[in-house]
Amino acid sequence: MPKTADIPLPDPSRWKALVFIALAQLMVVLDATIVNIALPTAQQDLHISDANRQWVITAYALAFGGLLLFGGRIADLWGRKRTFVVGLLGFAAASALGGAATSEAMMLGARALQGVFGALLAPAALSLLAVMFTDAKERAKAFGIYGAIAGGGGAVGLILGGFLTEYLNWRWTFYVNIPFAIIAAVGAYLVIREPEGARNRSSLDIPGVVLSTLGLVALVYGFTRAESAGWSDDLTVGMFIASVVLLAAFVATEAKVKSPLLPLRVLTERNRGGVYLSLGLAIIAMFGLFLFLTFYLQVVKGYSPVTTGFAFLPMIAGMITGSTQIGARLMTRVAPRLLMGPGFVLAAIGMLLLTQLEVDSSYAGLILPAQLLLGLGMGTAFMPAMSLSTHGVNPADAGVASAMVNTSQQVGGAIGTALLNTIAASATTSYITSHAAGATDPKLLELQGMVHGFSSAIWWAVGILAAAAAIAFTLINTGRPQAGPVAAGSDEGAGAEDEVKIPVIAH
Q: Cα-atom radius of gyration of the chain, to the nearest Å?
């Protein structure tokens, strides 16, 4: 353990930096849902066929999910501040291109470019927090804010997307990113001082980049295609087989090369591994829920896009409260598993309430309390998960460790949308077929079938959240973070009785 004199003073600009890091994270998370609401109008204006409509979402998801590990490694190599600023400016340019799109090809190209720069930006943002906030209590507050944005930003996107589409034009769902990105880039350039010695200057692992990118693209595309073409489709099955082969080859390569893209020690430390796995599962449940509730409120209840967005506010309020008031306050007092495990259980209880959905369910009596429980649970769990994602990691690996969190979220989102939507569609078809003979109102039967499908899929989401809680209780065994700054942690991992060592790098 170094002497007290060897421990650097905290960066005086760290809280200002957090404002711009959080702003950038909000922009990236917003973009995941804001375009969904604008898509029907954009499709009509740009004459995009129904068959190609999904590519407006898929082009972004493939580029973002496929390049995240590469983006994390670039952040370690170039420096997080530089990568962060480049990512922001590139994202702004791609958003301007999307907003000005005059054809299908221009739109799809802009979405892919947004994904590319998002893959640079997201891991750089999280790893900057990891190396700038070194005091346990301050780190808890910073990650509480970051976790609330990561969890609730998607729902904010629904509100903002509804407003922009309904009162301005779908193009503003792209243009709105530009001021976010420019303010965050200028602010980051002026106030962020990245700690010295935090870069990983070893040569780039080209085989690892190629194998991981192709493997993740195949995986994300496989799940995306399954949603529209079915699980038995030849190309869907081919994508899954290709992803398994490519990712297995990637792991084998990383075990042998001198300077791996993803050092396996980042994955094999049980606490980080537990975070990546449990968080990915939780995101599967969350993304499915966003999809179902949006359809339920708009199609079944007849809410407008703006009203639908506001209907998600209780979940956002719950997430912010869970992250900043529960998670951040208890993070330095209890072990992370005692926040993550109960958080996922509470979210599962909220999800369980939504299995009771019916066509005439009351918003105030059922949906509102379910959203509050979900938000509180997810916010409480996300906060320590975000902090633990860089638990004990070598500072030079902070970028790629942060990229793994985003990768687990991105892959989880793709799986959640495809898997739960397929389950819902199948249950809807079965319900309508079995009740068609005695139906007197075909429209009502259609709505009842749709809601039955939603509730059937939500039962699966309950089970998935229960699995996330079990993993958090079982794999995450580190103790509570120790107060004050400590020396850089190792990749050996803390035992059940050990206290977390927060990485610190000298200025």
A: 22
Q: Which of 138-142, 387-391, 481-485, 500-504 has the lowest mean pLDDT?
A: 500-504
- Residue 500 DSSP class: B
**Residue 375 φ/ψ, nearest 5 degrees:** -65, -45
Residue 438 contacts by C-beta under 8 Å, 6 or more apart in sequence? none
First to last CA, the chain: 18
Tell me the per-residue pLDDT of 273-312, one tens digit each, with 9 for 90 and over: 888 899 889 988 887 777 788 778 878 888 877 787 788 8
Chain CA centroid to CA 218, Å = 19
Give the distance from CA 11 to its chain's centroid.
28
Which carries the bigger pLDDT value, residue 315 or residue 480?
Answer: 315
The identity of residue 379, as a single letter, is: G
What is the C-alpha to C-alpha distance for residues 249 and 243, in angstroms, rounded to an integer?
10
Alpha helices in 133-203 (DSSP H): 136-167, 172-175, 177-191
**Section 401-406 average pLDDT:** 77
How many CA atoms lie less than 13 Å away from 401 in the CB half-sphere? 32
Residue 148's identity, in one-letter code, is A
Q: Which residues contact 278 (CB under 8 A, 6 or more apart)?
A: 340, 344, 381, 385, 468, 469, 471, 472, 475, 476
pLDDT digits (tens, 9 = 90+) for 314-353: 888 888 888 878 877 887 788 888 999 999 999 999 999 9
**Contacts of 228 by beta carbon, 8 Å cutoff, 6+ apart:** 54
Kindly report the length of the chain: 507
